[in-house]
Amino acid sequence: MPASFDLDAYLDRIGYQGSRAPTLDTLEAVHALHPAAIPFENLNPLVGWPVPLDIESLQAKMILGRRGGWCFEHNTLFRCALDSLGFSVSNLAARVLWNAPADPIGPRSHMLLLVNLNGLPYIADVGFGGNVLTAPLRLEPHIGQSTPHESHRLLPIENGFVLEACVRDEWSSLYRFTLEPQFHSDYEVSNWYLCHHPSSFFRYMLLGARVKPEGRYALRNNALTIHGKNETEKRTLPHAAALRACLETDLGLLLPQSPELDVALERLIQPPGV
Q1: pTM given for the model
Q2: Distance (Å, rounded) from C-alpha 200 to C-alpha 115?
Q3: What does DSSP assign to residue 69?
Q4: Other CB atoms within 10 Å distance of the CB of residue 80
């Protein structure tokens, strides 16, 4: 755990005021509050700004700056918080299956965490975009596990597991992972690749997500989808000002005043039905 990590500021950012003992109740509470307070968003690679993963930069952006980030940022910050609270945590990596071609299998481009709690392993992940977990999962295969939102389950595969979510009454694969511990340098490579490779859609498409008690907010360019408990609402944001307002209000971001950002948001506006 970096000496510069400010646990008090982090807990204030997510609105947590409970016990700091490293218990399952604490883990469940901070795991639910983190994605509700700190959204998923990829504005930095979209605009062309760097995405540093050192804890000082993450705190400046996501805590003091009230921005969001993607998986490497979210789960690095979350790991520091869990370490500070006294949890035993390991870094893992996954290959994304959600909305990805079945073949070939993609690289390990997603970060998640393994928490050992009183000898029992749990998967923790606060950075998987619009399908982010809102509770830790016991590393126990073949059983549905409820969360404040969808149910999830883990299926065993060779050398690892597949995480599935029950979306609209059907089980859908999110990602596959092994239990091989990862180093920070492993994430730096994937982080750089997603920021710079011409095939990375994070450079051209805006993705934003936030969970609230009433459901999930998912933004894809200028299309906002609100997945409620019983219905789904879709909105098309007609201009850059509306898109900025959505980012600030629905996702809760504090956006900088930047000509580069204004140009990027204007570029994302598409007519209805496109």
Answers
A1: 0.95
A2: 30
A3: B
A4: 21
Write out the two tokens for 46. Answer: 């979209």
Residue 194 in tokens: 């997603």
Tell me the three state secondary structure of residue 29. helix
Q: Is the pLDDT of residue 248 over 90?
A: yes
pLDDT of amino acid 54 = 97
Distance separating alpha carbons of residues 90 and 3, to the nearest angstrom: 18
| Res 95 pLDDT > 80 | yes
By annotation, the residues acting in catalysis are 71, 110, 125
DSSP character string of 145-168: B--SSS-EEEEEETTEEEEEEEET
Residue extents of the structural domains in the chain: 206-267
Extract the tokens encoding 238.
């007609």
DSSP structural state of residue 249: H
Choose the CATH number for 206-267 among 3.40.50.300, 3.30.1120.150, 3.10.20.600, 3.40.50.2000.
Answer: 3.30.1120.150
Per DSSP, helices labelled H in the chain are 7-14, 24-37, 43-47, 55-58, 71-85, 184-196, 240-249, 259-267
Encode pLDDT of 63-93 as tens digits. 999 999 999 999 999 999 999 999 999 999 9
d(CA 226, CA 217): 5
> Comparing 144-158, 167-181, 202-216, 259-273, which segment has the lowest mean pLDDT?
259-273
The Cα–Cα gap between 33 and 70 comes to 16
